[in-house]
Amino acid sequence: MKTTQTITPREPLDLESSKGNSRFVCPSCRGSLHRSVDTWECPRESFIFPAVAGIPDFVIPTRREHVNQFLRIYQDVRRIEQWGDGSPEFVLGLPYEDKTGKHPGNWHIRSRTYECFIADLRQIAPEPARVLDLGAGNCWLSLRLRNQEYHVTAVDVNLDERDGMQAARLAIPHIRSVDLVRAEFEYLPFADASFDVIVFNSSLHYTKDPLAALRRVSRLLSHGGYIYVLDSPVYKHEKHGDAMVRERRKEIGRLVGREIPDELGGSYLTFDRMTQLEAEYTVRMLRPKYGFLWNVRPVLASILRRRQPAAFMVAKLAPRTAGMT
User: Fold this and answer.
1) Which residues of 100-120 are buried (b: 16+ CB within 10 A; e: fewer)?
2) What pLDDT, in 10s, does the model give residues 208-266?
3) Is 275 within the bounds of a domain?
4) Which of 10, 62, 87, 188 shows the smallest number of beta carbons within 10 Å?
5) What's the rounded Cα separation, in Å, for the pair 278 and 257?
6) Greater confidence, 150 or 5?
7) Number of domains, the chain
8) Higher pLDDT, 38 or 19
9) Which long-range contacts (CB under 8 A, 24 or more apart) does 37-41 make?
10) Are the CB atoms for 29 and 58 separated by under 8 Å?
11) Residue 15 maps to a domain
12) What is the C-alpha to C-alpha distance for residues 35 and 305, in angstroms, rounded to an integer?
């Protein structure tokens, strides 16, 4: 019989002490920070991290222009494709109802992914486990987890008022029960072992090297913790993933009418790449129930001689020292 290691409930992450010493760490050197009003200072790097709209901004100063260049194009695309409207009704309806009516098929898939994920999470992480939501966007997943008594920290670089963390902050009175932090996946401002569960929420494919990103965040896991990857494309062959990236970059360029940086096309996982992780992690691929039509897509692609579509599964990883069967 298979057994699943469960996470022992812990106290929520205390991001700030009462004495002015920050519980954050510098995302660059990982040294201690000192808080003064709404700023955090790294004495070693001489970096100042401000709060923007009440949200701590831990994007490293030397990388802010790079992040802003990415966001200018990303936000344009999201507005053109109408991914959000900034209303509380839109955020609270996700992933089951797309009140914009623009992407019902995508949200149907994501609702099935969410159901698969939350069913598994309940087995291994009883409330009040500490969860890090990476790529939180408007925080729909963070809010659903918080409503189930998990302690949630949401991270994104996008503070957009329609589609990013400001949309959640401004629209939903209860957002203060979720800790909002602006940061890059590659440079997270949290001490080691701060979280019991880390979730890449349709976001791992925005990293340049997904496997390296997984390894970096592992240090933030408590003993016995888990990483989940939701709604990132997985391909059997790299040629099909590369074709998808080219198609997406071309489409984005058409939408915004200018050349785009490589990372806007995204990246992807392959089953072979996931296998590479098995020396360090126990990896399980959970299959949400997307329906018959979704399952026959590969057959239709072969008949029509098109590239193979991506698989979207829930990847569950545990460092081997933690053990998972």
Assistant:
1) beeeeeebbbbbbbbebbeeb
2) 899 999 999 999 999 999 999 999 999 999 999 999 999 999 999 999 998 777 767 78
3) yes
4) 62
5) 42
6) 150
7) 1
8) 38
9) none
10) no
11) no
12) 58
